[in-house]
């Protein structure tokens, strides 16, 4: 789970750098969705098979999907010069990141109670 957390944190920093510094390193067509990032791969395969019945696991799905969609919307708004929408969407990405991290922590705690690590 630490790997998923780090990957999403790095992604958020890249988004922030794109917005604040105009680094032009984040292209809309290169953004992954909630199925193709490392957490998504794990979620759709090993996670679903082993933890699909846990509410803590299920709780990850929607904020993770929304995180990736909002990131795409953010880059689109930024590329189109819509500063107000860009700022709102960046705030939303940060909030969703925090929700995902809280859900990962809850899942980790739930799996440790059952003595199964999440193997992520």
Explained architecture:
The chain is 75% helix and 0% strand. The model has no long low-confidence stretch (mean pLDDT 91). By secondary structure, the chain is an all-alpha fold. It is elongated, with a radius of gyration of 15 Å. The protein has 4 helices and no strands. The chain has one domain (2-25, 36-113): Up-down Bundle (Four Helix Bundle (Hemerythrin (Met), subunit A)), CATH 1.20.120.
Quick recap of the structure?
This protein is mostly helical and 120 residues long. The chain contains four helices and no strands. Helix 1 (2-21) runs antiparallel to helix 4 (83-113) and helix 3 packs antiparallel against helix 4.
The N- to C-terminal Cα distance equals: 5 Å
Parts with pLDDT < 50 across at least 5 consecutive residues: none
Question: Class by helix and strand content?
Answer: mainly alpha
What portion of residues belong to β-strands? under 5%
Based on Cα principal axes, name the global outline: elongated
How large is the radius of gyration?
15 Å
Helical element count?
Answer: 4
């Amino acid at each position: 789970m630490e790997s998923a957390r780090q990957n999403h944190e790095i992604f958020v920093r890249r988004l922030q750098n794109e917005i604040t510094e105009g680094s032009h390193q984040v292209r809309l067509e290169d953004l992954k969705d909630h199925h193709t990032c490392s957490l998504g791969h794990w979620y759709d395969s090993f996670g679903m098979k082993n933890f699909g019945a846990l509410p803590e696991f299920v709780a990850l799905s929607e904020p993770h999907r929304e995180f990736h969609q909002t990131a795409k919307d953010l880059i689109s708004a930024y590329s189109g010069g819509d500063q107000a929408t860009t700022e709102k969407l960046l705030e939303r990405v940060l909030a969703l990141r925090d929700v995902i991290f809280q859900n990962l922590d809850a899942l980790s705690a739930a799996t440790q109670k059952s003595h199964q690590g999440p193997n992520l």
